[in-house]
Amino acid sequence: MLFDLIRAKKIFPLKEGPRVSAIKAITWRIVGTIDTMIISYILTGDITIAFSIGSVEVMSKMFLYFLHERAWVKLTRKNDENGEVKVSE
């Protein structure tokens, strides 16, 4: 079924606004920060340093992801004659 969608090359309306992008950024950063803390702990052997690195990293990368997501949405959409937002080809 997934392959049928890919092969069909249909245009699907985008309904992602800034709020959805923000939620995606937050949940992805939770996963990414846990990964960063684990790697930091493995490399340093110090849990305090690992949490410090993770704390700084979570805020900076969440902000950067949000900006990236909004830029991506603007670059990959266009309005058709009906005013619907579609993925650009």
Which properties best describe this structure?
single chain; 89 residues; mainly alpha; two-stranded antiparallel sheet
Helix-strand layout with pairing:
Layout: H1 2-8, H2 18-44, H3 47-75, E1 77-79, E2 85-87
Antiparallel strand pairs: 1-2
What does this structure look like?
By secondary structure, the protein is mostly helical. Helix content is 71%, strand content 7%. The protein has 3 helices and 2 strands, in the order αααββ. It has helices spanning 2-8, 18-44, 47-75; strands spanning 77-79, 85-87. It has a two-stranded antiparallel sheet with strand order 1-2. A hairpin with a 5-residue loop joins β1 and β2. α2 (18-44) runs antiparallel to α3 (47-75). The chain is elongated and about 60 Å long. The two termini are 21 Å apart.
- The tally of helices reads 3
Report the uncertain regions.
none
Q: Radius of gyration from the CA trace? A: 18 Å
Beta content comes to 5-15%
- Describe the sheet with the most strands: 2 strands, antiparallel
State the secondary-structure class.
mainly alpha
Quantity of strands, as a count = 2
**Order of secondary-structure elements:** HHHEE
The end-to-end distance, rounded to whole angstroms, is 21 Å
Overall mean pLDDT stands at 79
User: In one word, what is the shape?
Assistant: elongated
Order of adjacent strands in the largest pleated sheet: 1-2
State the helicity in percent bands.
over 70%
